[in-house]
Specification:
Elements lengths: L2 H25 L34 H14 L5 H13 L9 E8 L3 E7 L8 E6 L2 E8 L5 E6 L3 E9 L8 E8 L5 E9 L4 E8 L1
Parallel strand pairs: 1-9
Antiparallel strand pairs: 2-5, 2-7, 3-4, 3-6, 6-9, 7-8
């Protein structure tokens, strides 16, 4: 056999062998069905455009705690605090410079043997009390001022009679407030005025007996 014929025979046998091997491989039971290609791949983690975007639940409780604290402060507030503040003012807590001074309310002359002084609280009825002095002596230890006029009768000495009204307190609304009227022994009005005093200060009138 010539070399040329031997070469073509060799090529033919190799081609036949390769084709047979490929056919057996494609027909073997290990080949994967075309319909199952891709089923074993992992699912995509890309979110679907049809999946609704649900709001994330906040893990912060700061807002809730803040509301809770405010609620507890309102719930457990002591209702007596306002009353306590007013009582403190009654004991002298009112601090207005306008009323922290003595007041001079004028003078008048009379021939009467005595005078009658009517006084009342013209402001809020809040427990105002006064002490009455005549010529630096205590004549009436304590007078409670309410909404009705109270009458005080004072004897007069010849000459000057200094009458002081001392504010013992100033009530819970402050200051010590009073309206007063002075009548002679015949019932005629000879003086009328008002005072506004902080605790411990005095309103003074001078009565000159002829």
């Amino acid at each position: 056999m010539s070399d040329q014929k031997y070469f073509f025979l060799t090529v033919f046998l190799l081609t036949f062998a390769v084709g047979s091997a490929q056919g057996e491989f494609m027909n073997s039971g290990t080949a994967l069905p075309q319909g199952n290609i891709g089923f074993g791949l992992p699912k995509s983690s890309t979110p679907s455009v049809f999946t609704p975007n649900l709001p994330q639940k906040s893990t912060s409780s700061r807002g809730i705690e803040s509301q809770k604290i405010q609620f507890e402060q309102q719930k457990f507030a002591n209702p007596s605090d306002a009353v306590k503040d007013k009582l403190n003012e009654k004991e002298g807590g009112f601090d207005s410079k306008a009323f922290r001074k003595n007041q001079y309310l004028g003078d008048f002359k009379t021939k009467s043997a005595y005078v009658k002084i009517s006084c009342r609280d013209f402001g809020e009825i809040d427990g105002d009390e006064i002490r009455v002095w005549v010529n630096d002596k205590v004549m009436i230890e304590r007078v409670y001022l309410d909404g009705d006029f109270q009458r005080i009768e004072l004897g007069l000495e010849p000459g000057f009679n200094k009458v002081d009204f001392e504010a013992l307190n100033q009530g819970y609304s402050g200051p010590n407030t009073a309206q007063f009227m002075v009548f002679d022994d015949k019932g005629s009005l000879v003086s009328s005025n008002q005072w506004n005093l902080a605790t411990g200060f005095k309103a003074t009138i001078i009565i000159v007996k002829d």
